[in-house]
Structures are given as C-alpha cells and as structure tokens.
Amino acid sequence: DGGITQSPKYLFRKEGQNVTLSCEQNLNHDAMYWYRQDPGQGLRLIYYSQIVNDFQKGDIAEGYSVSREKKESFPLTVTSAQKNPTAFYLCASSMRTGGVGSPLHFGNGTRLTVT
Amino acid sequence: QKEVEQDPGPLSVPEGAIVSLNCTYSNSAFQYFMWYRQYSRKGPELLMYTYSSGNKEDGRFTAQVDKSSKYISLFIRDSQPSDSATYLCAMSGGSSNTGKLIFGQGTTLQVKP
After folding, report:
1. Residue of A29, A104, A112, A113 to mutate, interface with B, max B Cβ within 10 Å
2. Is A107 left (phi over 0), alpha (psi -120 to 50) or beta?
C-alpha cells in the first residue's frame, strides 16, 4: 500500500535536546511538507520541499530544520531553539511540483512532548 | 483577521441528523477547496475536493462553494457515529499563493447514537 510513514508515533525529549522526526513516502510524490498542529490553531506550515535538495520556509520555520536528500524522505529536526516544541507534527506530500490545487496526503503524525 | 475562518465547535448532533460545516475566507483568488476529516490521533484524510464554485456530491457528503460570498460548506446527511471527527477546510489558488494550502482551525463533530 502506498502512503506516508511517520515515526515514531510518540516521542519524549528533555528541554535543550534536538530531536529528528522521520517521514518517508512511497507515493512517488515530488512535494513534501511539514505541519504543526496545536489545539484551536489548525495546521501551520513549517517547511516544504518541491524537489530533492531544495526546500523553503513555511510560516513558522524558526527553531526547525529539514533536509531533502532523497525524494522519498523529508526528516524534520526540532532544535533547542524552538521555544514551544510540544505539539502534533504532520508530514504530507502532494503529486505536482508547484502544487496549486494539489490535495495533500498526510501521515498519521508524531506527537512530540518536551519536558 | 485570519485568511480562513472555521467555527471550532464542538458540534454535537444525534445520529441521523443533517450536519452543516462551514468556512469563510478573505482571499478572492482561492480556487481550490478541500475538506479533510481527521480522527483522533490520526492524520487528516481528504474527503472532498472542488474547483471554483458549485456543488459536489459523494455519497452522504455534499460540498458547496459560493465564491461570491467567500463561503464554503460541507453537508453530511444521515450522520453516523463513525462521522465523529474533526473536519478541516483547506483552500489554495492565486499567483501569490504558490499552491500552499491554507487551513481552517477545524470543527470537532460528535454524532451521538
């Protein structure tokens, strides 16, 4: 079955530590995205990538970093600079590069808790 | 003012009721409109996709777009307990948008047996 795999499902870290969230897709999609979801705030775009070795900041990129070395993979690192990292993180992909109108396919998320 | 506004609810209805979920938006360039359903602790899944104005029906679900009023709706007929979820509207379009989807805050729906 094609889809997006996010791992782990739950992640716990101490404050001050960097942590990397994994996202892998086998849909052969060009574009990949990272969103953050907080109660009452909907989905906010962190970073997106339309092609391998290229990515752009979204609306809330501060304190996060990404890489896109392979088409299938788009890991997100939550750094110690992110002031409020506890959240539900969603990875998504879409078929068309440049993607106007392309619907997103989502993984099942990683819930990160930082104490 | 947010680009997309959605009443967060929660909305609670009895089984069999007709449910109306709504979003308003401010960017008249939006042309692509979507509804996603998200179950608890899961990722959103695409439910309905429409382009420009008009209606689209899929089983018990009907999506309506009124571009003149900048208003979109999702109707659920004969609602079932399995419809209990958070519903997110999303939209994109326009030269300045670069295809990024703009999401509403989500409406939480509970259908009681």
Report:
1. A104
2. beta
